[in-house]
Design brief:
With 519 residues, this protein is mostly helical. The protein contains 19 helices and no strands.
Length: 519
C-alpha cells in the first residue's frame, strides 16, 4: 500500500476515535441539559442561536477552507515564504472581517432574534448567548490560519488529543454550571473557555511543527488575500446552501410552530446529523491529502481515491442510517425518556435525506482539495433555492413533519446533481455511485427489519433501563450480521481487506500503547 492511502487511513482512524468520544459524551449530556434548562428554552434559545451563528459565519467569505489547502500545498513544495504570507495575510483578513461581524451583531441582534420568533421572556438570554457565540466565532476565525497548520500537515493525532482534553473540560464545566443553575448563559461561557483552550493547544503545536511560523507585517500579501477570496467565495456559496439545508429548518420550525416543536425537531435532526458527522470523519483527511496528490499531478490516484472512498462511505453510512431509522423509537426513548415521540417521525424522514447528502462527501472534499470550487458554488445556488421551496411547501402541506420531508427531498435532488457534475469534471462519467449504494443498503435493511420485528415483542412492557440493555444487544447483533453480509456479498476486495488489516493493526497498537503507558 503506498504512503498516501496509509496516511489517510491513519488520520481517518484518529479522527474517528476523537469523534466517538465527543459523540458518546454529547449523547449523555443532552438529556441532562434538556432537563436542566427545559425543552422550551432549549428550542427557543440554544437551538436557534446555533442556527443563527452558522449564518453569521458566512461573513468569513469561505476563506477558512483555503488555509488548509494552500498550507498543505506550499509545505509539500517547501515554499516557506508562501506559508508565512498565507498565515499572516489570513490573520489580517479575518481580523477585518471580524470587525464587520461584530458590528453587524451589535446593531441587529435584538431585531433578528425577534424576527425568528424567540419569545420575549427569553430574549435577553438569547442576546447574551448570541453575542458570546460571535466572540467564539471571531476568536476561532482569527486564529484559524495558524491552527490550520495542524490539519494541513495531517497531524490528526494532535487534533485527537486536543479533542480529548477540550471535550473532557467541557463535560466537567457543563455539569458544574448547570448544577449551579447558570442555564444557557453558563453553557455558552463553557464553550468560550473550551475554544480558548483548543486555540492555545493547536497554536502551540503549529509553532512546533513550523518553527519559522510568525505573524510579520511584511508578509501581508493582498494578492494572497485575493486568492483566498477567489477560492473561498465559491466554497462560501456552497456553504450557504449547506446552512440553508441544515439550519433553516430549525429557524422555520421556531417561527411557524413554536419552541417545543423546535426541540422535538432538533432532537430528530441532531440524531441523524450525528451519523452524518461520523461518516464525514471518514473524509476529513482527504482535503490536505488530495491537495498534496494534486500537486504531484497524479490523476490516476485521485480517481481511485474517489471510487474507494465513496464505497467505504456508503458501507459505513448505510449501516448507521438504516439502524437509526428502523430503531428510532427505541433509541429516543432510551436516550431521553418518554415524551419525545414527535421526534421519531422526524428522525426517520431525515435519515433518508441525510444519507443521500453524505454520499456526496468524498466528491465534495475532493473539489476543495482540487480547487474545483465552481462545482460547490453551483451546488450551493441550486440547493439554497430548492431547499427553501421544498421546505415551505412541506410545512404548508404536512406541518412540522413537512419541513423534514422538504429537507429530505432537497437532499435527494442536490445529491443527484452534484454527483453527476463531479463525475463529468474528473472524466469519470461511467462511475455509477448508485450501483455502489444498492448492496450496502439492502444488506442493512435485510439485517435490521427482522430484528425490529422480533424486538417489538420484547420491548413493549420493559422499563427504560431494560430497554437500553435490549437495545445494546440489538446493536451488537445487527453489527455482526451486517459485517457478515458485507463479506458474503464480496463488497471488499483484497486491497480493501488490506486497509481493514491496517486499521485493525492501528487499533491494536493504540491499545498496547495505552496499556504500556506509551503515546
Amino acid at each position: 500500500m503506498n504512503e498516501a492511502p496509509k496516511k489517510i487511513i491513519q488520520n481517518t482512524f484518529t479522527n474517528a476515535a476523537g469523534f466517538v468520544y465527543i459523540f458518546i459524551s454529547n449523547i449523555l449530556l443532552l438529556p441532562f441539559i434538556l432537563h436542566s434548562i427545559g425543552a422550551e428554552v432549549f428550542g427557543s434559545v440554544w437551538v436557534v442561536i446555533g442556527a443563527l451563528t452558522a449564518y453569521i459565519g458566512l461573513l468569513d467569505l469561505g476563506t477558512g477552507t483555503a488555509f488548509v489547502k494552500y498550507i498543505a500545498q506550499y509545505h509539500t513544495q517547501n515554499l516557506k515564504d508562501d506559508i508565512l504570507e498565507t498565515i499572516t495575510s489570513g490573520v489580517v483578513l479575518y481580523f477585518v472581517l471580524s470587525v464587520l461581524i461584530a458590528g453587524t451583531v451589535l446593531v441587529f441582534d435584538i431585531p433578528l432574534l425577534t424576527f425568528v420568533g424567540v419569545p420575549i421572556k427569553y430574549l435577553y438570554d438569547a442576546q447574551f448567548v448570541l453575542r458570546v457565540s460571535v466572540i467564539i466565532y471571531i476568536l476561532v476565525g482569527v486564529s484559524s490560519p495558524v491552527t490550520a497548520v495542524v490539519s494541513a500537515l495531517q497531524r490528526m493525532d494532535i487534533t485527537f488529543y486536543t479533542t480529548m482534553v477540550v471535550q473532557t473540560w467541557t463535560i466537567i464545566c457543563t455539569v458544574i454550571v448547570l448544577n449551579h443553575g447558570e442555564g444557557v448563559r453558563g453553557l455558552i461561557l463553557v464553550n468560550l473557555t473550551s475554544s480558548l483552550i483548543s486555540i492555545a493547544i493547536l497554536a502551540y503545536v503549529a509553532k512546533k511543527e513550523i518553527p519559522f511560523l510568525a505573524i510579520v507585517p511584511r508578509y501581508i500579501s493582498w494578492d494572497k488575500c485575493k486568492i483566498f477570496l477567489n477560492y473561498g467565495i465559491n466554497i462560501q456559496i456552497s456553504k450557504f446552501g449547506q446552512i440553508i439545508m441544515f439550519q433553516t429548518d430549525r429557524v422555520l420550525t421556531l417561527k411557524l410552530f413554536g419552541p417545543l416543536t423546535t426541540t422535538y425537531y432538533d432532537i430528530g435532526a441532531r440524531l441523524t446529523n450525528s451519523g452524518r458527522s461520523f461518516t464525514g470523519i471518514l473524509i476529513t483527511a482527504l482535503v490536505p491529502a488530495v491537495s498534496s496528490i494534486d500537486a504531484q499531478n497524479n490523476t490516476r490516484q485521485l480517481s481511485a481515491l474517489y471510487i474507494r472512498g465513496t464505497k467505504y462511505l456508503l458501507i459505513t453510512a448505510s449501516c448507521f442510517f438504516v439502524f437509526v431509522s428502523v430503531f428510532a423509537e427505541y433509541i429516543i426513548t432510551v436516550w431521553l425518556g418518554e415524551g419525545y415521540v414527535s421526534a421519531v417521525i422526524i428522525t426517520r424522514v431525515l435519515s433518508i435525506g441525510y444519507f443521500f447528502n453524505i454520499i456526496t462527501g468524498v466528491a465534495s472534499s475532493m473539489t476543495a482539495g482540487l480547487g474545483k470550487t465552481n462545482l460547490d458554488r453551483n451546488y450551493g445556488i441550486i440547493v439554497s433555492i430548492s431547499n427553501i421551496l421544498f421546505v415551505l411547501a412541506g410545512a404548508a402541506l404536512f406541518g412540522s413533519v413537512g419541513i423534514a420531508v422538504g429537507t429530505t427531498i432537497s437532499f435527494l435532488t442536490g445529491a443527484a446533481y452534484f454527483i453527476a457534475v463531479f463525475n463529468r469534471s474528473i472524466g469519470e462519467k461511467n462511475i455509477n455511485i448508485y450501483k455502489l449504494l444498492f448492496k450496502p443498503v439492502f444488506t442493512a435493511l435485510f439485517c435490521a427489519l427482522p430484528i425490529y420485528w422480533i424486538a417489538t415483542t420484547f420491548m413493549m412492557n420493559l422499563t427504560r433501563f431494560h430497554q437500553g440493555i435490549v437495545l445494546a444487544f440489538i446493536l451488537i447483533l445487527y453489527g455482526l450480521l451486517y459485517i457478515v453480509g458485507i463479506r458474503y456479498l464480496s463488497l471488499l476486495d483484497d486491497y480493501d481487506k488490506g486497509i481493514v488489516h491496517s486499521i485493525v493493526n492501528k487499533m491494536r497498537n493504540t491499545v498496547k500503547g495505552f496499556i504500556n503507558g506509551q503515546h
